[in-house]
Amino acid sequence: MDGSVKLMLYPYNSISEVLLKNRDLLDGYRIEVVASFKEDKHALSYCASKYGVKADSFQAEMLQSVDAVLLVDMVVERNAESYYVVATQALERGKTVLCTENIKDILKEIDPILSKDLILFKNVHTLSKSYCQEGLLKIKTPIIAIAGEGEDCSKFESQLQLLRCLHNDGYRFGVINSNSFGALFGIKGWPPQLFSASLCFEEKVLVVNHYVYDFCAKNDFDAVILGVPGGLSVLGAKCTNHFSEVPLVISSAVNIDAAHVNLYFDMNVEKRFIEQYKTYCSYKYNLPITSVGVARQRVVNDMESHRFLFFHLDENFFNKDYVKEYCRENGLINPDDPDAGKMIYDRIVKALESNPQTV
Question: Strand 297-302 and strand 307-312: pairing?
Fold first, then answer.
């Protein structure tokens, strides 16, 4: 046995799918069981056959073969009580229960005492010294950014696809992102000050610069990948993406040498718009876009509710011939293309090799 923590995922959804698809990259964890709601019967059968794991509607007996339960965030509104039942039964049997801040807050409303026993994902880099008297520091390690048009834009999946290629080619790399599940893969999180409401823009820029500088200085990386939180674009009055403050902070704090960006799926987007978007990213964020991909989400402006609605698109959709052809014609990377990660990787490596400052 390899000593990895044996995990049960609950429930089965698109987040679980990303974790399962990249389970070979997990750092110290192994997915053994997937449990979910009774109405997910057919999806669980598909999961079991595709990934070779035990997958069924939740039963307490399923806990016997695992060390810990991972409560996966809700993608659509589900019954919070079911999370409480799973967490309670796991804790009663001496199992560790891992979750994100979102799930902990939901369960705290049901049972404040139980929520104290839940373990949050935290994997933030610890600075080796204080930089409070320093200004902007020059970072010599090549920096690669993975960004998205908006939030929930498949950035985490693109990062994992790129990680696999870097790992296979023997590169030493570090990764920082804001996805809580990144901790399962040994990925570091951003410093909490980046999202603080009490710090001004300038203070955040210095915090991020010192954080990335120390992360690079402490490790002999060939490159560092930054998963850029939030979105690069304001979608509308009801979906501002916080006016892209976080991407602006990060792009002001570090010099980015190559970047991949994901756009929400939209069949009306053509090559001219994509080129314009690259130019927009270059001028606003100094992002040298080397590749553009399609996110697994489609965004629709609902005129009745005056809200933006987000729809998840699965692999069946992206494997349709007309979708594949649309991506090919417009130079977009299809997330379900077997070579998606390699395409991101090849274009980034080409850009870095042609830049004398990073060779």
Answer: antiparallel
